[in-house]
Amino acid sequence: MRWNSLTAPGHRLALAGISAIGVTFGFARYGYGLFLPELREEFGLSVSLVGLIGSATYVGYLAALVMVGALVARFGPRPLVLAGGLSAAVGMGLVALAQGPGLLAAGLILAGTSSGWAWAPYSDAVDRMVPAGRREQVMGAIASGTAFAVVVAGPLALLARGTGWRYAWLAFALAALASAAYNAHVLPKGRSRPSRPVQSTLRPTYRRAALPLLLTAVIYGLVGSVYWSFAVETVNDASPGPATAPLFWTLMGAVGTAGALTGHAVARYGLRRVHAGLFSGIAVAVALLGLAPASLPAVVLSALLYGPCFMAGSGILAVWSYRVFPERPSAGFSVTVFFLALGTIAGPALLGAYAELQGLRAAFIVTAGVAALALLCGPSRSARGQGRRSSPRSITTGTALTHPDR
User: Fold this and answer.
1) Regarding predicted confidence, which is higher, 388 or 233?
2) Mean of the pLDDT values across residues 338-355?
3) pLDDT confidence of residue 264
4) Domain limits of the chain?
5) What pLDDT is recorded for position 309?
6) 161 three-state secondary structure
7) pTM: predicted TM-score of the whole model, two decimal places
8) Which of 29, 86, 267, 293 is packed most tightly, with the most Cβ within 10 A?
9) Is the pLDDT reported for residue 246 higher than 80?
């Protein structure tokens, strides 16, 4: 992004969004998987219980996301983003201070709600604070927050190995407080004045073309939640050295910043080709951890594939959703995200239970097969040109915030 082309409010909003998305997704939601070996050793957690806790964090995320859809039009973005920052700070603080699995789970679930609170309100904030010609640049910057936070979390995990994991989570909590304070200063107060009637959040017109989109959303959520929850545990179990897992995480985040180029890729190669490439990459990345978690080249290749493919996946869903529901983009994308969240809830619990019986490597191979199923439900050719005649004011995605196809 060309920073010198942005207005001062655009600069400040981009930094505020990067920090909020970074702490709520990169730390509060995905930090659980990074520190899973330490948490299992500290609290004696079984693989199946780990999966249940992971699914519970996504339930909290879904609950917050649904409430935001009803509250943002009434209260504006500022209080909801602040709720996300504070829930991340308090939740991660509880994790750092937990002395038993009950408080640990409560902290993780509360922290998991934070990304649901903080995600969607930036659509409204960008629309209100940034000129129309610059909005996509600010959204692209905000999209990088998760990847940058993952990059930071990896080295921190390396420094805080063993019992030092608590200090890392305290650092995460302090970062969330700092982000909340900065967002309180930057974000506009009050609600926006909609120029057209507010659409129903979860009631877009039914159409058959939505079925492949919604199936892909479920698969994307399921596969992603399993990888984020169990990848480090798998690598750690077969790791040739103590630094492998944190460096794997850092590499995944670093290459994940390339996900900001999703819009350019779709414009050049088309939605169908990019969809096929992304889910092929995700399937191979997951399979590598199931087939050869002890092989350093396989682990590195898995990170190199998964980082950009996963980070770009949410952008693909946003573009595709708008092409399926061009007349009701907000309602259509809300339903898409709802199905994505269903996948994230099911993934850790189901695959965690399977791993308890067959092992994590077998669970990753099964998950790779699920990822490959997305190749069978890609966008239709008729969707290629839809959505180009008009553009929604803003479409938000889990780690990406993007307009469909400019």
Assistant:
1) 233
2) 90
3) 76
4) 1-190, 203-406
5) 93
6) coil
7) 0.79
8) 29
9) yes
Q: What is the pLDDT, as a whole number, of residue 137? A: 67
Question: In this predicted structure, what is the pLDDT of residue 201?
Answer: 47
Domains 1-190 and 203-406 share a fold: yes
Mean pLDDT of the chain: 82
Confidence of residue 139 (pLDDT cuts 50, 70, 90): low
Q: What is the 3-state secondary structure (H, E, C) of the chain?
A: CCHHHCCHHHHHHHHHHHHHHHHHHHHHHCHHHHCHHHHHHHHCCCHHHHHHHHHHHHHHHHHHHHHHHHHHHHHCHHHHHHHHHHHHHHHHHHHHHCCCHHHHHHHHHHHHHHHHHHCCHHHHHHHHHCCHHHHHHHHHHHHCHHHHHHHHHHHHHHHCCHHHHHHHHHHHHHHHHHHHHHHHHHCCCCCCCCCCCCCCCCCCCCCCCHHHHHHHHHHHHHHHHHHHHHHHHHHHHCCCCCCHHHHHHHHHHHHHHHHHHHHHHHHHHCHHHHHHHHHHHHHHHHHHHHHCCCCHHHHHHHHHHHHHHHHHHHHHHHHHHHHHCCCCHHHHHHHHHHHHHHHHHHHHHHHHHHHHHHCHHHHHHHHHHHHHHHHHHCCCHHHCCCCCCCCCCCCECCCCECCCCC
- Better-scored residue on pLDDT, 316 or 200: 316
Instruction: Please tell me what DSSP assigns to residue 401.
Output: B
Which residues have C-beta within 8 Å of that of residue 262, sequence separation ≥ 6? 274, 312, 315, 316, 319, 400, 402
Q: What is the CATH number of domain 1-190?
A: 1.20.1250.20
Q: Can you tell me the distance from the alpha carbon of 10 to that of 130, in angstroms, rounded to the nearest whole number?
A: 6
Which fold does the domain 203-406 belong to in CATH? Growth Hormone; Chain: A; (1.20.1250)
Q: Which tokens sit at 88?
A: 């991340």
Rounded CA-CA distance 86/340 in Å is: 25
Q: Give the C-alpha separation, 274 to 317, whole Å.
A: 11
Q: Is 179 left (phi over 0), alpha (psi -120 to 50) or beta?
A: alpha
